[in-house]
């Protein structure tokens, strides 16, 4: 049975969805047809979410070309995995190659807290002609810091596990969340790149992608991109927002003008509505995390110990960071990238489904389900 609050969320999402249906009927919807035209719109205010303008035809490439106009971004895939994840990684990489990268040839960076074994390296390298690098995570970036009170942290883990909180009893999961929040982009193999696409084991890519999303990020000055957004599990972030507010009150000068605060808060930052981008898929400009704002933000969160004294995830941390330190129109929804990470999926609709030769069922689409936050993203532009 849904709680009264869930009925409110569902009602709001339904109303916004009706507004979107009206927007789709606009004669200007999908009219962008050239790179030049879309560049003219960068920086201009619009009441249409950027993804509804469509991808200019100039970006699409023929099957015998490697990239539009011979251009490539300084970008890589980043995959955090263990040796035991091999089969799941093979599934993800094989699909990425078949759907996209065999045309574009972007490199891969694999990261692990233990050395990758030869079997892992061999099997993965056989899947692609692109450059593949395997990196070891420094222990200082992975293990629980010495200054964390382990007695307090272990008590929290037990309590969460007893209460059925997902990954609530896991220390490795917390290490992963902290690493993804504040350290992966500092790794020596990642530092040379400007953009990254995060890929995880056992995910599904449903559609052919015949244009380069990295060039969309580069040409349109996008800082962060997603395919799925949803509400965070409240029991894992009980003190996260009070900590964020404490940081904001002391560092207002670091916040970006015209940011995406309205995506994560319904009252101007007084409370957190728990919306976040599901960070198992993200494409981003690494300068977002390398900048002064996010660097100080992460360090502040880390010092509070919430990654271990609670179970702060990298998804809300990245999402709040993107909302505070990027402009709202620098956050992009890749509507035509069909993607599934259990148990949710984004399946492109209409012409995007046909153009991408997507094999997902359009009816099985999380975009405007009651637990999705996409309607809140759309509302930022209304």
TrEMBL record:
The active site is at residue 282. Residues 1-25 form the signal peptide. InterPro entries: Glyco_trans_15, Nucleotide-diphossugar_trans. GO terms for biological process: cell wall mannoprotein biosynthetic process; protein N-linked glycosylation. Keywords: Signal, Transferase. GO terms for molecular function: alpha-1,2-mannosyltransferase activity. GO terms for cellular component: Golgi apparatus; membrane. Belongs to the glycosyltransferase 15 family. This is Glycosyltransferase family 15 protein.
């Amino acid at each position: 049975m849904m709680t009264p609050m869930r009925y409110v969320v569902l009602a709001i999402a339904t109303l916004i969805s009706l507004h979107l249906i009206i927007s789709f009927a606009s004669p200007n919807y999908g009219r962008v047809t050239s790179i030049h035209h879309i560049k003219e719109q960068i920086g201009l205010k619009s009441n249409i979410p950027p993804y509804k303008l469509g991808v200019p035809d100039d970006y699409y490439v023929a099957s015998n070309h490697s990239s539009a106009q011979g251009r490539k971004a300084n970008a890589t895939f980043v995959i955090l995995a263990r040796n035991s994840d091999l089969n799941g990684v093979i599934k993800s990489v094989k699909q990425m190659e078949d759907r996209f990268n065999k045309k574009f040839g972007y490199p891969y960076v694999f990261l692990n807290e233990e050395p990758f074994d030869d079997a892992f390296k061999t099997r993965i390298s056989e899947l692609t002609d692109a450059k593949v690098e395997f990196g070891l995570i420094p222990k200082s970036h992975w293990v629980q810091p010495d200054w964390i009170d382990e007695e307090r942290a272990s008590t929290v883990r037990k309590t969460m596990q007893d209460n059925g909180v997902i990954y609530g009893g896991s220390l490795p999961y917390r290490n992963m969340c902290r690493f993804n929040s504040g350290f992966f982009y500092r790794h020596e193999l990642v530092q040379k790149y400007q953009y990254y696409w995060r890929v995880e084991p056992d995910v599904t890519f449903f559609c052919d992608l015949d244009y380069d999303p990295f060039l969309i990020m580069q040409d349109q000055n996008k800082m962060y991109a997603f395919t799925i957004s949803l509400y965070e599990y409240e029991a894992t972030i009980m003190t996260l927002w009070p900590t964020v507010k404490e940081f904001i009150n002391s560092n207002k000068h670091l916040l970006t003008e015209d940011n995406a605060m309205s995506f994560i808060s319904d009252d101007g930052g007084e409370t957190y509505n728990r919306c976040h981008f599901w960070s198992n898929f993200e494409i981003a400009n690494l300068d977002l995390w390398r900048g002064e704002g996010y660097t100080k933000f992460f360090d502040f969160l880390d010092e509070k110990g919430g990654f271990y004294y609670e179970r702060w995830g990298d998804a809300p941390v990245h999402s709040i960071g993107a909302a505070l330190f990027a402009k709202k129109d620098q956050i992009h929804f890749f509507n035509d990238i069909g993607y599934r990470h259990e148990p949710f999926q984004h399946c492109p609709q209409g012409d995007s489904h046909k153009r991408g030769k997507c094999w997902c069922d359009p009816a099985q689409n999380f975009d405007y389900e009651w637990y999705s936050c996409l309607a809140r993203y759309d509302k930022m532009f209304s």
